[in-house]
TrEMBL record:
It comes from Streptomyces hebeiensis. One of its GO terms (molecular function) is kinase activity. InterPro entries: Glyc_kinase_flavodox-like_fold, Glycerate_kinase, Glycerate_kinase_RE-like, Glycerate_kinase_sf. Keywords: Kinase, Transferase. Belongs to the glycerate kinase type-1 family. SUPFAM superfamilies: Glycerate kinase I (SSF110738). Transmembrane segments: none annotated. The keyword ATP-binding does not apply. This is Glycerate kinase.
Length: 386
């Protein structure tokens, strides 16, 4: 680029966006943005780093960053067998619970709020241990379950028994019948493995802000189901406190305990996991810092930039890190409900929405790719040709 006869350093763009849920994966978002930028500035230096915050799409983001994709047959949330994937590189595994126990694993329109199990997530963790992982990032979000991680712990060797000494049934509803919790049989490799609980929510396990009350309805739980699940999770926590000591009671109130139907609590108590905001963990794992150091402009985004974005979602994490490094950030999205002052507080100079080009949400969903390329062209004209 030349300005007033003097050569200036060309812009170096980092595209670090999450998926547009229901329309484009994070990888596809990066591809479309890159195509739009280069249509206006063919020589543009563009680096892509698809990101995720621990929910669905986390494994795909890790694979795009160079991790190896590993597939495993596991137990789905309804008890049927399915193929799930995790990612592995240099002794670090990225396990996405949504792959094995997520709403995406259910038939369309089918929910099982009282019986859906996290057993398959435990099987994914065991597969990562078998592959030699010494650090496991457990990304939670998008779950179909509210079982407090009981299924996960059972798959890893815990014994959860009812009053007759029989293994408890699947799902959060069965937790109300628990009489004994024995964690002594948990896989011994867990004690020497760093488990990081990566989540974008900090809810406690139970109560009005707990796993059942806040997220149960999204999984098909009726008001009576929510009450049943909340009481069952409280009973479960009491039994785990007896099994491992009084520290378990405090962990029920810890940030992330209520994540993904309480699997966060199971991970904190049973796996010795440490909680970190999902996007913060994933940016570290994906190598965001060195990529940011090479950039003069960051383009982030997700399907909907709204109030939830500001509470630990991927664009907020990307923008925060970029602002700290003094790098300008703009965002792309499907729909935008945040006012400019909220964007600026988050470190985003401007947001470009598909609905600016096409007001019909259905058309935006169907034509997200071409519309996103048009937004990227606009960004290129405004930011790369000055």
């Amino acid at each position: 680029m030349v300005t007033d006869g003097a050569a200036t350093e060309p812009a170096r763009v980092l595209v670090a966006a999450d998926k547009f849920k229901g329309s484009l994966t994070a990888v596809q978002v990066a591809e479309r943005v890159t195509a739009g930028l280069r249509r206006v500035v063919p020589e543009a230096a563009v680096e892509t780093l698809p990101v995720a915050d621990g929910g669905d799409g986390t494994v795909a983001a890790a694979v795009a960053a160079g991790f190896e994709r590993r597939e495993v047959r596991v137990t789905g949330p309804l008890g049927d067998e399915l193929t799930a994937a995790y990612a592995l590189r240099d002794g670090t595994a990225v396990v996405e619970m949504a792959e094995a126990s997520g709403l995406q694993c259910l038939p369309e329109g089918v929910f099982a709020p009282l019986t859906a199990t996290t057993y398959g997530t435990g099987e994914l963790l065991r597969a990562a241990l078998d592959a030699g992982a010494r650090t496991i990032v457990l990304g939670v979000g998008g779950s179909a379950t509210t079982d407090g991680g009981a299924g996960m712990l059972t798959a890893l060797g815990a014994r959860l028994l009812d009053g007759a000494g029989r293994p408890a049934g699947p799902g959060g509803g069965a937790l109300r019948d628990l009489a004994t919790a024995d964690l002594s049989g948990l896989d011994t490799r867990l004690a020497t493995t760093e488990i990081v609980l990566a989540s974008d929510v900090d809810n406690p396990l139970t109560g009005p802000k707990g796993a059942a009350a806040v997220y149960g309805p999204q999984k098909g739980a009726a008001p009576e189901d929510v009450r049943t699940l909340d009481a069952a999770l409280a009973h479960y926590a009491t039994l785990l406190e007896r099994a491992v000591g009084p520290g378990a009671a405090g962990l029920a109130l810890a940030p992330g305990a209520g994540a993904a139907g309480g699997i966060g609590y199971g991970a904190l108590v049973g796996l010795g996991a440490g909680f970190r905001p999902g996007i913060e963990v994933m940016l570290d794992v994906l190598g965001f810092a060195p990529a940011l150091a090479r950039a003069t402009l960051v383009i982030t985004g997700e399907g909907s930039l709204d109030e939830q974005t500001l509470h630990g979602k991927a664009p907020a994490g990307v923008a925060s890190a970029a602002r700290a490094a003094g790098v300008e950030v703009v965002a792309v999205c499907g729909r935008l409900t945040l006012p400019p002052h909220a964007l600026h507080r988050a470190g985003i100079a401007r947001a470009y929405a598909l609905t600016d080009l096409e007001p019909d949400p259905a058309v935006c969903m169907a034509q997200a790719g071409p519309l996103l390329e048009r937004l990227a062209e606009e960004i290129a004209r405004e930011k790369l040709t000055r």
